[in-house]
Design goal:
Number of helices: 12
Largest sheet: none
Order of helices and strands: HHHHHHHHHHHH
Strand content: under 5%
Number of domains: 1
Shape: globular
Structural class: mainly alpha
Oligomer: single chain
Amino acid sequence: MVMPKTVTRKQYAIGFGFVILAAIGLFGILPRFGDFGSSLQTLQQATPLVVLAAAGASVLAVFCSALLYMVLSVRRLQYGDTLLVQMSGLLINRVLPAGIGGLGLNYLYLRAHKHSAVQATTVVTLNNSIGFMGHILLALGLVALAPAAFRDVHLSGRLLLVSVLALLVVGLLLIVIWRWRRPQLQALRLVGRYYAKQPQQLVLAVAISFALTLSNVVSLWLCCQALGISLSFLAVFVVFTFGIAVGTATPTPGGLGGTEAALVAALIAQHVSAPLALAVALLYRLVSYWLGLLIGAGATVAVRQRHLLRQS
């Protein structure tokens, strides 16, 4: 996996420029999904306490992310510092597309805390792999435990087609990355034996990845509840999965534009009206994207001041 050495001020500036342009384009495209004015009026009627709970669930996912790195780390990490770095990632992942910034940030943090290049790469790779596999296992588990609830989930042919295409794009990107760094695969296998000898770490990591995913899904579910939309938790899980898949395949910072459009389309497939679907998408992205941007900005300043990414 290729890890950038650092994120310069120029890259920040370019990233913010993309965010601004994407946001402008976003608000030019989203009105086509329905009555935009009606969606904005609906947002004003959202239940404040429920919106606050949705924001809290979204932030909880960051705490889970920090704990996941703590468990997978080969060397000892301080939870407070790790949490601060994950919060900083809320900014960097919104400046650089496809989560590239977050990968590089965590790589630099691990390198600064006595991980070799191979160890740091392995931990970051394993973290993202467990997150992906954990999401799939959680989805299968929910369907197995509540098969009747799955009948309330509506999956259109177009929705499934776009989901498959998005996953194919993500898969191709992963293949390109692996082939690019093919000489390191043997070294990664050697480091992987460390985890094979301590399977309890992997089991705990999968459990934490479940909590991380559920925190994000609960946040979206609460956004629906705040606007008076009653959907089953499994239906919201499907909507969230579709939004994440398309957002990851969208070449914009934080999947801006693609994620919103995907969430709206998935909600409409669940028989939610277009104005309400757009209101939910905007509210969820407000508490998960734009709030994260603010939290990440403050955390990034603290990370730089504490030199958490500087190798000794």
